[in-house]
């Protein structure tokens, strides 16, 4: 995507095992979910009978009685033969999860009413105590472009974002390990001996960290869109360009078959030629509405739309490419999802979630600050990864970050039972990543969805085989005997 590291604080995860005399059992302040008349998510939760709550947790778990922050959560209680509580995470990092119980209850079908479904906005995200660096952009990654000058322009952009965060006191405490500790504090506050956990994308890494820190406190575990725990960090996207080049070619074949609708080319090669023409023109600038796009921003727009191979997503991507193609001959006004995406990328509307996401990545793992290392890596792979390598391999603000990680990255290796769900063509968390997490979790079983280029499968891709295997596991708590394909 989205390192001198201090020594880890030994056994820090164990502070939540049993409340000490100095630390009372945490309690949740429950309240209605809707906060304003415009809060549609809160209204939907209230209408479904959910509760929302706030839990105070330590900012720094090495000082449990020190400054506290708030973690926001929701609960949709079980209605039938209750199994227990299940914490949900939608990935990101930094993805809000308050509304997840509504979506997941439906996806879980007959098991949806058997769990207390717990949505949470992780620390510094959404309704939890926020991190907001006050950026005028909602995207912290911009590609290197075609030249050394454009690469250095992107590096200055990254350095500027980091500079705007330098006075934020929360940055050192945004790590995944601390979020895992927050989850265990939620478990304690709910009065549960063990919790179940279902997650997507980055949430699979968070779940693996929780399993490493608190292995005896998990019941059923589903990890969908799995991330390699050794690769996770600010350079997570570095190796994904080949899968996205393949996804781009697959989409180009789809768009070519619909040339009469989108006008992007009658063959896959012609459609890819349209993409190349857009990127070449972007080096001199494209005017889309009030936004100026260069060859650093265009790849970011393209990559953001390649994680879903279903018809509606491909149609939306085709509309975006048509708009960019029109912009190569003069200014054009964006419409629909394209206009919304540009608004998010080029205004401060998404500053807070983008700040939180980057803070988590930078707090988890350090990266090199040597710009030459990034440039040489881009040049080495430019021919094989022409569309996305200069984006996925470029320097990020973490290279200039004002703080360094307080703990070493969590080394994952345990036998906690878990069900891993992966698509063999996932453009975000690639299939080799899934296999590595599966191997690290020696008690896990893996479901592979074949011929799918979708990030996130359960309840999202429409694969009945995979959905049924997950639901059966949630109902019984019994993992499949062997790995399987769908």
Automatic annotation (TrEMBL):
Keywords: Hydrolase, Signal. SUPFAM superfamilies: alpha/beta-Hydrolases (SSF53474). The lineage of its organism: Bacteria, Bacillati, Actinomycetota, Actinomycetes, Propionibacteriales. Belongs to the peptidase S33 family. This is Pimeloyl-ACP methyl ester carboxylesterase. It comes from the Bacteria. GO terms for molecular function: hydrolase activity. Residues 1-17 form the signal peptide. Pfam families: Abhydrolase_1 (PF00561), Abhydrolase_4 (PF08386). Transmembrane segments: none annotated. Residues 85-237 form the AB hydrolase-1 domain. Coiled coil: none annotated. Residues 395-486 form the Peptidase S33 tripeptidyl aminopeptidase-like C-terminal domain.
């Amino acid at each position: 995507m989205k390192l001198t590291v201090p020594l880890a604080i030994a056994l820090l995860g164990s502070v939540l095992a049993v409340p000490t005399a100095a630390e009372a059992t945490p309690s949740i302040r429950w309240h209605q979910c809707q906060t304003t008349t415009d809060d549609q998510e809160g209204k939907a939760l209230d209408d479904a009978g959910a509760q929302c709550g706030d839990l105070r947790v330590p900012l720094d778990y090495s000082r449990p009685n020190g400054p506290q922050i708030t973690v926001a959560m929701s609960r949709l209680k079980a209605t039938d033969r209750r199994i227990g509580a299940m914490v949900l995470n939608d990935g990101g990092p930094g993805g809000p999860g308050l509304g997840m119980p509504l979506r997941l209850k439906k996806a879980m079908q007959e098991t949806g009413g058997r769990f207390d479904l717990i949505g949470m906005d992780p620390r510094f995200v959404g309704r939890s105590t926020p991190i907001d660096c006050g950026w005028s952009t909602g995207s912290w990654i911009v590609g290197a472009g075609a030249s050394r000058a454009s690469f250095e322009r992107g590096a200055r952009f990254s350095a500027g974002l980091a500079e705007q965060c330098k006075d934020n006191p929360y940055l050192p405490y945004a790590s995944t390990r601390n979020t895992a500790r927050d989850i265990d504090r939620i478990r304690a506050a709910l009065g549960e001996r063990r919790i179940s956990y279902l997650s997507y994308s980055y949430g699979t890494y968070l779940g693996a960290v929780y399993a490493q820190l608190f292995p005896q406190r998990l019941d059923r575990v589903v990890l969908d869109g799995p991330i390699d725990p050794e690769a996770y960090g600010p350079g997570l996207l570095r190796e994904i360009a080949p899968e996205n080049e393949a996804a781009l070619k697959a989409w180009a074949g789809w768009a070519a078959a619909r040339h009469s609708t989108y006008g992007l080319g009658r063959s896959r090669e012609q459609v890819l030629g349209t993409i190349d023409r857009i990127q070449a023109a972007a080096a001199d600038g494209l005017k889309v509405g009030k936004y100026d796009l260069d060859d650093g921003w265009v790849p970011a727009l393209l990559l953001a739309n390649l994680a879903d191979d279903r018809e509606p997503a491909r149609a939306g991507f085709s509309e975006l490419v048509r708009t960019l193609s029109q912009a190569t001959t003069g200014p054009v006004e964006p419409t629909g999802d394209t206009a919304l995406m540009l608004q998010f990328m080029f205004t401060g509307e998404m500053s807070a979630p983008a700040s939180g996401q980057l803070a988590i990545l930078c707090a988890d793992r350090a990266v090199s600050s040597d710009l030459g290392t990034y440039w040489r890596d881009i040049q080495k792979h430019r021919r094989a990864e022409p569309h996305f390598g200069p984006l996925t391999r470029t320097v990020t603000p973490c290279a200039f970050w004002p703080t360094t990680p307080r703990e070493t990255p969590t080394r994952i290796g345990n036998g906690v039972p878990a069900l891993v769900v992966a698509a063999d063509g996932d453009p975000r968390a690639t299939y080799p990543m899934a296999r590595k997490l599966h191997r690290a979790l020696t008690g896990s079983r893996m479901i592979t969805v074949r011929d799918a280029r979708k990030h996130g499968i359960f309840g999202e891709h429409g694969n009945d085989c995979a959905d049924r295997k997950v639901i059966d596991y949630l109902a019984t708590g019994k993992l499949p005997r062997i790995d399987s394909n769908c």
